[in-house]
Structures are given as structure tokens and as C-alpha cells.
Amino acid sequence: MSTQCKPIQIEFQGFGRREVRAAFDGGHISSDGGVLLLREVDRRFGITQGLAECFTDYRRGDLIEHTVLELIRQRIYGIALGYEDLNDHDDLMRDPLLGMVLGKRDPQGSDRRRRCDRGKALASSSTLNRLELTPADADVRYKKIVHHPEAIEELLITLFLDSYEKVPGEIILDFDTTDDELHGNQEGRFFHGYYRCYCYLPLYVTCGDRLVVAKLRTSNRDQSAGATEVLAHVVERIRARWPEVRIVVRADSGFAREELMEWCEENGVFYVLGLAKNERLLQKIGKELVAARELYERTEKAARVFTHFLYRTLKSWSCFRRVTAKVEHLEKGSNPRFIVTNLPEEYATPKVLYEDIYCARGDMENRIKEQQLDLFADRTSTRTMRANQLRLWFSSFAYTLMSTLRRVALNGTRLAKATCGSIRVRLLKIGAQVCISVRRFVVRLASACPYQEAFIQAWRNLQQYPLRC
């Protein structure tokens, strides 16, 4: 016979003559009411449904309580909501709102097979761990859900292409790498001299706020290693859908390599790449350095002079290429910068090419920071590269979900340019009371939510898109 325990009463400092008491007896209340918007975005753009199709489930169907789709949604929604570690899900298992958005028929978990699991609709950390750690051959007893890397990479590109409602005239692909610091003995662990730590060196490709590629790599390699192969595949996919679109590759000096530039020139792809300065380049801009210094001395303000010229390295380049120079003089002295490009001269003046086109690549660094800081792309603490790559992809699809929410649903609201972290705090972390009956779920969101107008507008914007799953 079960007994009903009285919740512990917690007394706080009084308010005037009134006592202040609290107890955990409010019923089904969730702190993640905004997950309803994530579910709405996901169902209309098919993000987790597509990812689930990139897995093969070798488990016995009669013993399964959590489908692959439910496990993937739990992991990706959890990352978007701020739960970066698997053990966080041991505390989330009882949340009926999360159970509902995952598609659980029994979101309260009252019909679980094992008595100790009843009341917990979601999967535990150990079950999610099996999803991540299954080797390619699945030749183990408990790890039988295999992911297919090639399919996941293709899906990211497909979601990128599908995000455009009309054919774009130009696509700018930003390439960049970052350090993913390691604190254990993970496979592929190497010390990187520039970052001064043991780390991975993932390669990212973005287009605006859209993610195209997220590839985990060891750090014992050049920054641009493998970039040409990645670019060739992405360009092939883009041109298969939009043959006439102009494609521009943009990156820092770590990607200004002969292999990449030569491939672009042979395949009709434009590039705008940073170029590390050297003595020969500085000699080319001698007059401009003097002009910038004199202008600074006259105005006592930062002075910029722009020029361009043909340049070829002594050994590494196969031909002359156009280099644009920003010759700047500041209080601390001269600060020249160079870029190399194959864009025609009539495309843009040297000033516009540097300030408006090349410098805009700084926005990609913000996108990487969002993934690293807000969506935990650096939680690559498992033993194998395969499992850590899957964790990076989970973060990538969480980012795709959040960026779609921002670009589509929050268009026209005051959160239209907010970071993923700000969207989480302001729009997803909303108190919600969940009322469950035989006929319906009723979710009562906090009446004092300061961003309820943005929430309602986001829901209205999403109604313009058809359901996919």
C-alpha cells in the first residue's frame, strides 16, 4: 500500500506580517515551457526526423522503450535548453512536458516496464550513452544504434540548401577552424603550439548564420588540411540544385594555400582570403605606408589607404594573383593587412573588398562562439574520435534548430538578432504548468513572461510552413 508523503515546508524571511513558505508540491511544472517552440520548428523543418534516418537500430523491437527519434530529440532539445551533459538527463526524466514534445505516448512514464522507471518517461544517461558510443560494427551487447557519418554530413548540407525559399544570386562560404581543448586521453589528442594546449581542430563552414559543415579533426595538421575536398563536395551539392549561383569562398590567411586557390580558379569559384604579411608585400606598399603616416600626422586620427597589385610568391604559388592591401596607420604605428582574391576588379573597389566583404567574415566567429559557448560543441570528452564527432554533430543540429528558430520564427521580433544563449534565457526558459487529461494537454505559460509577444509572434510566423513530421 503506497503512502502519500507531505512535502517538506521551507520557510523564508517574512514579508511584512506575512509568512513566506515554499514546498515542491506545485504538480507538473516545467522550467522549459519554450521547448514547445523548438518542437514546432522541428516538426515543420524535419531536422531531427532527418537525423534519425541517419542511424540504424539493431536493437530488438520488442524490448525497446525509446525509439531512435525520441533519443535524438531528447539529446538535441536538451542541448538547446542548456543541458550539456548526459547525466543532466537523469534529472530530466520526470518532466512530462519534455516527454510530450519528444512524442511519448505516455509522457508521465506511468507504464514503464520496470517499477523503478515508472514516473520517468525519458531515457536515462546510460541509454543516451549507448546512442553515442556504438562503434561502426555494432558488435557489442548493449550498443546497437549505429550512426552513418556520410549521411549526417549530407543532411547538414541538405538542410542548408532547403533553408532558402528562393534561389540566391550569390553564396559566400566562410571557412574557419577553432581549438577544442581536451582534458583527457582522447583518441587523436595532440598539442597545438599556437593554442598552447592539447586540443582538436574542428573545421567549420558557414553561410551567414547557416551551418554547412562541422568536421572534427586532430590538431596535428595545417589549418587548411582537407578544406579543398570539403569545398569541392559542397560546391557540387550547391550547383546540382542552383547551377547559376555565384559561389565565393572567404577565409583567413590559414587557408591561402595553392591547392585551394588553384581548385577555385579551375572550377569557377571565387575566393577572398587573408594573406600573411612579409617583407616583399611590405615593399610593394612602401608609398602607401608613407601616405598613411602623413595623413595620420595631419589629422591625428586613424588613417587608411587602400591599393591593389599583382603578386606571386617565390615558390608556393603557380601564378600571379591580385592582392588588396589595407594600409593603416594608428597611434601605435602602421598596421597593414593583405587579402588575395580572384574576384574581378569591377566587382568591388579595394576599400569595399576589404571593409565590406572580407571583414564581414568576423560574423562567422560569432557563429562558432555560439556553438562552443551556448551549445556545448566543445564537450568532446568521450574516448573515441567517432563518438566525439557525433557529439559535435548533436551540437551542430541543435544550432541548426536554434538558428532556424531565430531566422524564421523570430523574424520581425526584438529577438531576431539575439544569440542562441539569449534566446534560450528569454524564450525557452519559461515556467509552464502542464495539465494532463485523457483528451488533451494544456500548458499554462507564466503570465508575467516579459517576452510573450515575441513568443506569440514566433508561433504565428511558424504557421506559414507546412508540417513535415
Short structural summary:
The chain contains 16 helices and 19 strands. With 469 residues, it is α+β, with helices and mostly antiparallel strands.
Structural class category: alpha+beta
Instruction: Please work out how many helical segments DSSP would assign.
Output: 16
* Helical proportion, percent range: 25-40%
Largest sheet: 9 strands, mixed
Q: Globular, elongated, flat, extended or rod-shaped: what is the shape?
A: globular
Number of strands: 19
Distance linking N and C termini? 43 Å
Strand content: 15-25%
| Gyration radius, rounded | 26 Å
Mean pLDDT: 93
Residue ranges: pLDDT <50 for 5 or more in a row?
A: none
What does this structure look like?
The chain has 469 residues and is of the alpha+beta class. The protein is 37% helix and 20% strand. It has 16 helices and 19 strands. Strands 6, 10, 11, 12, 13, 14, 15, 16 and 17 form a nine-stranded mixed beta sheet that branches. A hairpin with a 2-residue loop joins strand 1 and strand 2 (18-22). Helix 3 packs across helix 14 and helix 7 (149-162) runs parallel beside helix 14 (385-409). It is globular, with a radius of gyration of 26 Å. The two termini are 43 Å apart. The mean pLDDT is 93.
What descriptors fit this protein?
alpha+beta, 469 residues, globular
Please give the structural blueprint.
Elements: E1 10-15, E2 18-22, E3 29-30, H1 35-45, H2 47-52, E4 55-57, H3 68-81, H4 89-92, H5 96-101, H6 125-133, E5 145-147, H7 149-162, E6 170-177, E7 180-181, E8 190-192, E9 197-200, E10 203-207, E11 210-215, H8 227-241, E12 246-251, H9 258-266, E13 270-275, H10 279-284, H11 286-299, E14 303-311, E15 321-330, E16 333-334, E17 337-341, H12 350-358, H13 362-374, H14 385-409, H15 420-428, E18 432-436, E19 441-445, H16 452-462
Parallel strand pairs: 6-12, 12-13
Antiparallel strand pairs: 1-2, 3-18, 4-5, 6-10, 7-9, 8-9, 10-11, 13-17, 14-15, 15-16, 15-17, 18-19
